[in-house]
Amino acid sequence: MTPILRFAPSPTGRLHLGNVRTAIVNWLYARKSGGRLMLRIDDTDLERSTAEHAVAIETDLKWLGLTWDLFVRQSDRFAEYAAAADKLRASGRLYPCFETPEELELKRKLALSRGRPPIYDRAALKLTPKEIADKLAAGEKPTWRFKLERGTTAWTDLVRGPVEIQAGSMSDPVLIKADGQPLYTLSSVVDDIAFEITHIIRGEDHVANTAVQIQLFEALGGKVPTFAHFSLIADAQGGKLSKRAGAISLENLRDDGIEPMSILSLLAKLGTSDPIELRTDQTQLVGEFDIAKFGRSQPKLDIVELEHLNAKLMHALPFEAVADRLPAGADAAFWDAVRGNLLRLSDAGVWWQVVHGEITPDVNDRDFMATAAGLLPAGPFDGDSWARWTEAVKAETGRKGRSLFLPLRLALTGLDHGPELARLLPLIGRDKALKRLEGHAA
Ligand code: GLU
């Protein structure tokens, strides 16, 4: 049996760390198992969904390097959802309810005040066929609820192990709204059956949905897939992620210079028994993936961790991997000189400016600089020039350590930190170096 998985975002906003993790885990599962992945756009809510967000989801996933084998847009499939609803009506599992939202709210409050769980009381099931017909004839628009079977709904979850949910503790869910719109609970199951989804992997916030959906699979005559619900990410303080780091969109991260492999390295391992370490290619992450490695405790995400991974990635990437995104003219020598000092690729621009652009040198001790300038070796500089030069300056001035190196760095780069000068100096070249030591912008 070839596994078939799906990632099913609702196009009501941009992808963020929380939901992109679901995409990554499904993708890893599909690739590791030789299965297929479907991207399903859950856009039945025509008011909240937008075509722009749907396009942005695809753009974001592609940027991340994820690929999918099948694509479905739920707004193309309203007829299938209507047919499924008819089937449920015919078998007596979908019933019309005419209560207004205000009436339902009142019932809820009443139940709570009596110490009862605020679940729907199924009053609509007591309506006679004539009462229903009269209401419909009078133009009343019902919502349609799925009649849950009482008793236990159970499944073996790939992450949580055996799960049991008492359907008696749940309201019969509305599957069709008063305006006729099918809700996610139904459309999702209809598609999972139609496209023969074998594995549903998603966050634990869907556990209660799963109980309902298993009953729906059965009521519609579908095969119940295997489920896995991973724990949701908390932020570094243990708070709910959605309000903080989890809400950070891929778009923001990309604009901030965070690379796809940094995000993949983090999210593929978060919540698993594997340590989070940088991986520079997807194949390795796919090889290491195993859904059994996911644990039940809540993983914490510190956004700083993502920045560390990104810095490590900069150090690890060869020139060829970044060449087309570096300033025009940058070569391997430049990349090798600066990559150890980058948190993000765009920072390379700063060092490109230092090497090839004009900077204002920071020169205080002019006598010292004059001495240093006089000792500057003849060009062209090579990998040893810096060592030979600073040895000579040290011998002449008696300075060493920080008091020797920092003024030279400030003069040559205008900055008090940065890549090794032994590598930068040959790139800066003798003419520029000399002018800067003399305090001129160059
Ligand atoms: N559109 C649903 C969501 O974004 C899909 C959930 C599911 O995987 O079934 O929550």
Automatic annotation (TrEMBL):
Sequence ranges assigned to domain Glutamyl/glutaminyl-tRNA synthetase class Ib catalytic in this UniProt record: 6-274
Any idea which UniProt keywords this protein has? Aminoacyl-tRNA synthetase, ATP-binding, Cytoplasm, Ligase, Nucleotide-binding, Protein biosynthesis
Q: Does the keyword Repressor apply?
A: no
Share an example GO biological-process annotation for this protein: glutamyl-tRNA aminoacylation
Could you name the domain of life of the organism this protein comes from? Bacteria
Key word Protein biosynthesis present in the record? yes
Primary enzyme class? ligase
Pfam families the UniProt entry points to = Anticodon_2, tRNA-synt_1c
> What catalytic activity is recorded?
tRNA(Glu) + L-glutamate + ATP = L-glutamyl-tRNA(Glu) + AMP + diphosphate
Motif mapping: 'HIGH' region:
9-19
In this chain the Aminoacyl-tRNA synthetase class I anticodon-binding domain maps to: 375-438
Q: Where in the cell is it found?
A: Cytoplasm
One GO molecular function term of this record is: tRNA binding
- Recorded E.C. number(s)? 6.1.1.17
> Where in this protein would one find the motif 'KMSKS' region, according to its record?
240-244
Similarity comment: family membership: Belongs to the class-I aminoacyl-tRNA synthetase family. Glutamate--tRNA ligase type 1 subfamily.
Recorded hits in HAMAP family, A to Z, give:
Glu_tRNA_synth_type1 (MF_00022)
| Subunit (UniProt) | Monomer.
Q: What does this protein do?
A: Catalyzes the attachment of glutamate to tRNA(Glu) in a two-step reaction: glutamate is first activated by ATP to form Glu-AMP and then transferred to the acceptor end of tRNA(Glu).
Q: This protein is called what?
A: Glutamate--tRNA ligase
